[in-house]
Amino acid sequence: MDENLHTADTTHLAKLPMHRVHLIEFHDQQWFPSFLRDYVTDALQFGFNLFKVYGPITPLLQRVLDSTGIHSIVDMCSGGGGPWLDLARKLNSRKPTGDSSDLRICLTDKYPNLDAFQKVSEASANQITFYSGSVDATAVPRELNGLRTMFTSFHHFLPEEARAILQDAIDAGESIAIFEIPHRGPATITLTFGFVLALFVGTLWIQPFSWSRLFWTYVIPIVPFVLLFDGVVSCFRTYGPQELCEIVARLAATGYRWEIGEYPTGKTPITYLIGYSSLE
């Protein structure tokens, strides 16, 4: 498999100020109230739409789609819809003249925020759909076909669970693309505080309007606390490229091409792991 593994320069990992620590995040715990989880994912969705943090990886994602000939995407751990409203528009704008193929995107989650999914679907003119049942990323229903994607969610999983996610894609014969913007370092942790502050202020503009959302944001600030706590924990939990290489090295895969690295954005680089069976 080594000859099919392409990685970016990872020598900088030795300079990371901390090792990966798998602390808990409140909003992915089964006991966490579902309505508060929806408020948290709604806020994150608002931030994705506002800052378009994953917009820069559009060329990389387009290259994967072109290399595999895939026209459907199954997004896992979608939260409130992830970055797909922005990414779908950007991918559509990159289509060659005369290309009539329709990119289909299906949102899924273990704890689906169905109201948010419906809103995203309507805003996309139904190019983005959703699966209403619970989807475990380690055992995706086989009727969900297409490139599997994950955004800012792979760090939620322990190494053995992370391998199970990748192995399930391999066993199903599906390609997979994982993107993470958090990093283990003081600069990214500091940016998390600014991001949460923007979400705290922006809650007034999150639709649909909800007095309950305002209560749990401004009166009893559970939502901003969880956003900040889970955001900082995400930085500690994130896998670096070298750790992703170690996870991939233990997979049972034949004929898969793996690409691992950090995609430059001009600000915070986006860590990526992509696996697919090449058409070459």
Low-confidence stretches: 1-17
Derived from helix and strand composition plus strand pairing, the structural class reads alpha/beta
CATH superfamily: Vaccinia Virus protein VP39
The domain count comes to 1
Number of strands: 8
Rg computed from alpha carbons, rounded to a whole number of angstroms: 18 Å
What would the CATH topology be? Rossmann fold
If you average the pLDDT, what whole number results?
89
Q: Compute the number of helices.
A: 9
User: What sort of overall outline do the alpha carbons produce when their principal axes are compared?
Assistant: globular
Assess the beta-strand content as a share of residues: 15-25%
Please give the order of strands in the largest beta sheet: 1-7-8-6-5-2-3-4
Q: What would CATH call the class? A: Alpha Beta
Order of helices and strands: EHHEHEHEEHEHHHHEE
CATH architecture: 3-Layer(aba) Sandwich
- Binned, the helix content reads 40-55%
